[in-house]
Amino acid sequence: MSLSNDQVGHIARLARIALSDTELEATRAKLDGIFGLIEQMQAVDTTGVEPMSHPQEFPTRLRPDVVTETDRRDAFQKVAPQTEAGLYLVPKVIE
Amino acid sequence: MSRSDWEVVIGLEVHAQLDTASKIFSGASTAFGAEPNRQASAVDIALPGVLPVLNRGAVERAIRFGLAIGAHVAEKSVFARKNYFYPDLPKGYQISQMDLPVVVGGTITIRVGEGESAYEKTVRLTRAHLEEDAGKSLHEDFHGMTGIDLNRAGTPLLEIVSEPDMRSSAEAVAYARTLHALVRWIDICDGNMQEGSFRCDANVSVRRKGATEFGTRREIKNLNSFRFLQQAIDYEVQWQIDTLEDGGRIEQATVLFDPDTGETRMMRSKEDAHDYRYFPDPDLLPLMIAPEWKARVQAEMPELPGAMKGRFMDDWGLSAYDATTLTASKEVADFYQATVSAAGAALAKPCANWVMGELAARLNKAELDVAASPVSPAQLAGLVARIADNTISNAIARKVFEALWNGEGATADEVIDKQGLRQVTDTGAIEAMIDEVLAANQKSVEEFRAGKEKAFNALVGQVMKASKGKAGPAQVNALLRKKLGA
Fold this sequence. Notes:
The complex is a heterodimer of chains A (95) and B (486).
Chain A: H1 5-14, H2 21-42, E1 62-63, H3 73-78, E2 83-84, E3 87-91
Antiparallel strand pairs in A: 2-3
Chain B: E1 6-17, E2 54-55, H1 56-68, E3 72-73, E4 76-77, E5 79-83, E6 93-97, E7 103-104, E8 107-112, E9 119-132, E10 136-142, E11 145-149, E12 156-162, H2 169-185, E13 198-208, E14 218-223, H3 226-245, E15 253-258, E16 263-269, E17 279-280, E18 287-288, H4 291-299, H5 305-316, H6 320-326, H7 330-343, H8 348-366, H9 377-388, H10 394-405, H11 412-418, H12 427-440, H13 442-449, H14 453-466, H15 473-483
Helix pairs in contact in B: 2-3, 5-6, 7-8, 7-9, 9-10, 12-14, 12-15, 13-14, 14-15
């Protein structure tokens, strides 16, 4: 299977990655390589094998429903580019 | 073509905020109303290197919901990443569930309409899954920028998805109300709609009567009141019918409801629809729910509204309407049951009348919750008992109720004694009053003798007045007829 440049462009847009034409071509070649690997894996007969969602066969750990975190806003906001009134400021977004 | 040629098809997606103390994947508090970002931990703001750890309390609430609606609670469910970019979603993905949700199937029975035309209907649920809420974007002007508050980020949500089983806005609202009552009943969500604890999205389509295929649907997002849910669906249905009858086509889209204009408007078309690229979250192992855990949650489950309603009808002889009203919320049901248990099952019906009538009206007027009622179940039971044994009439009972409401006595008996409200049943005393009234109202007596039944009622009223309401109307009636030889 081979991806089209349009498909690669679409994925790049979804990931908010700007690609020049040459980068697009290089990225397409890399992704095609990954698809080649997937094709190889799909050749394995997995009849009767339950799909796994995680390579480890353990159940997830659970924590008790208890508040353990303290307020560290001031420390966190020191590394933010811009804050005001306790809010993180970002370029205006209107959906 | 008219409205009646069309069938409306509605499915609802409800986001219920689970009322845990801490967030679904971090130990930050979920309390509402904190200063911005004071309850946003390193996990919630997605600092590099942090890992989510699932909250047992959130899972337990999902189990409780699944069991309450008779659904399958999955032994194994999986968390997935739902990828999209928005500043109030710091990770760039929301942790949700996709292929293997925690709750599958189940049903909710709703009662639609009132009186003679009321009917019951069972709505099927598709699934319910656990996920995290996003933060909040504040679009007020911060020098042309947007402010981000991540306190809500990571709050546990249960997204409850119904099948497209509803056929009118009334059915959709009845379903939403029943679901709202249920999540509060089983204590998994506070149901506060103003604070966004219970939010509805409605998928709406129309098709010609008799059609087997569904029409193209549009999704109305974020309806945070039952009234808006009804208005938005009604507007949307009419818009879709008008569009189709004018020869237009419905395009799949997401729309928003504007409460000011009462209209829905397009938010994004199918072309702009998000491509979420779900995949299992490698940071989280599968959620396993052992049968023992389910059994324990089942054992701790309170009696559910449906079962309680049936019991009220079977054991206490209440009508379907009364039983539905009294099980509309846990608080009302608790109050009613406490009243009946004090008054005795034989008085279940008059207790129901008082809880749904005088008490509900008075609470409503005072804008009080039944849990904060100044009149306790024991006091109300005492009052109902005195009506039943003819100590007081219904009219006097309302006075006693008022006195109890105002704290003018600890029990109905105390108020009755203190204010001398005991019903007069002594035949001699009533006859004496009747004689006085007859003597003073010769004109009415003559009119009655001439065949005017209205005059009789006037005389009864006069006697009741003379007794200051303490005589029983039935007894006055009988004695008066005897006196007049009628």
